[in-house]
Write a structure and sequence with these properties.
This protein is an alpha/beta fold. Helix content is 59%, strand content 6%. The chain has 26 helices and 9 strands. It has a 6-stranded mixed sheet, with helices on both faces. A 3-stranded antiparallel sheet has the order 6-8-9. The longest helix has 30 residues.
Amino acid sequence: MAEQNSSRRDIQFLRAFAVLAVIAYHFQIAGFGGGFVGVDIFFVISGYLIFGKVYAQMQRGDFSLKRFFGARIRRIFPALAVVCAATALWGWFFILPREYLSFSRTALAALTFVSNHAFMGAQGYFDAASHTKPLLHTWSLAVEGQFYFWLPLILIAVYKARLGARVPLLLALAGATSFAWALWLAYKMPESGFYHVAARGWEFAAGAACAIIAPSRHRHARLFLLASVVVLIASVSLLGGSAPWPNVWALLPVGFAAAFIYFAADAQDNPVIAHPAVQLVGDMSYSLYLWHWPVWVFAGMMYGDSMTIAHKAVMLQLIFLFAYVSWRWVERPFRERGRVSSGKLKAATVAVLLAGVGFVAFIVVTKGYPPRFPEYVARAAQQAAQTTPRNECFRSDRNTKDAPEQFCVYGASGRAEDATTMLWGDSHANQYLSALSDASKAVGSTGLIATMGGCRAFIENDAIQYPDYPLCKAFNREVYAYLLDHPEIETVILARIWFDDDEAIGRTVKLVRDLIAHGRKVILLTPLPVPGMNVETGWAVRQIQAGHAIDEIKLEATPEVRQSAILDKLRAELKAEAESGKLWLLDPTQRLCDATHCYIVRDGLASFRDISHLTEGAAQTFEPDFIEALHRMGAGR
């Protein structure tokens, strides 16, 4: 078989489509809710090109591992190193020490192509918290790098075992196994399924299959090609939501990206595919992908939810400018052997890696080097770093905690048998623990802590990230069963992150009614105001830009900021329960807002430590509200 041409016009078209879909998705442009599938399309392209080259050379007997790895380094490493360096430079002036420490580690992970493992188990790719990680997008480069590493080694082993004729069969088996593994991980360990190369192997295999099968010369090939484009556009427009990825729906973008490659052999002169602008974007696709995410993250730090269409337009222009410069003066010179020798490339690679190790070591030893910022900027980091006391009782999203007992105890007594209340919910429930514990001591009541990361309290499971998050489902069942078995738990305090989602609100209403039907009373915390930015970074960046301390940041108390629509729905749905005295709605906006404004920072104290969680100091101000609520429910003395 012939080696695959990486500059084929249809491949460049597909690259352009994929990168523009990803950028549009990250820029939150309407109609691109599934734009993240552009990454899956890139994996298909890589499978086709890289497998095709290695397989063809092995069939001819002239494959060189040294030559292959050298070509891959030339293609990927220089532009990646430039982006990491530029991001580190910008971050030196704008990223606070704690986050800069984390960033420095991910930068080294990116340069060594293991950043998928660095991000695995942290907040998910689709989480709001991910928007503060400038190099999060390098996870896909790590997956590609690991594919480049393992593919030739596996094929060498196959040929040494004299199984070369069985490569198509082995490829099919590997692809099917990887797909089955991906579906299992999507259910059991969604983060691993998203980031792990083994769960993405079937996507590379889909492209590789196109390299083995002869290109289609079917008389209806152009019709099939058009159908492939239609399905890819539909995937970008219609896929999305909070389900784990890749799931069974990933067959659409992956399968039809492969179909596009298969049927496009005779479409090289198609006026859309061959258009110079399309081809240029395809040429620049790697640099566009590298630059778009750091620019988006840094703009988000500066503007938060106040970002306008004009801001996005300027950002897009910057991204294309940076990408063109990177492609023209970094990518192309390094890819041409005559301009940069192998010896110089090797020396430059080693130098960059050594510099990266030294940089990370310095940042780790100095803990992010706080002297970079004046004291008033450091306040943001200090307040955000305050975690909820007794964090050992908070279960991670893997349903594990450090404390040995089933549920930790808060309040007046240290004994679980004295408990008459329970705090149940996600991290947005756990943030109130100090205030609730102090209030419980004040009224003489004792309670149990039932909180788990990303797991909202429902009878039927739901979660921030994954509707079928099985560990959350098991945890909620455990808590619910405990409540039914312990009627002495008379009052349940429910808190959660809120979205204006009728189904999720309906599930909370159902839980409240069910608990009341089982003889319990309920304190339900309604939505916090929306800060519109990551307060830790946003407050710091504003002060850095201003050159002086900023002691107050406030937003107009609009219905959107106060999340009034959710509160109104809850009041309407639960009116009878509230009037019966068995439900108390605790509205946090009454403490964080006045008639005209909601305060994100007041008197030099931040209300939030990120985009949605209260600082420990702000949370403690709710003690009087909990004292009143507990008295209303008859808890304590």
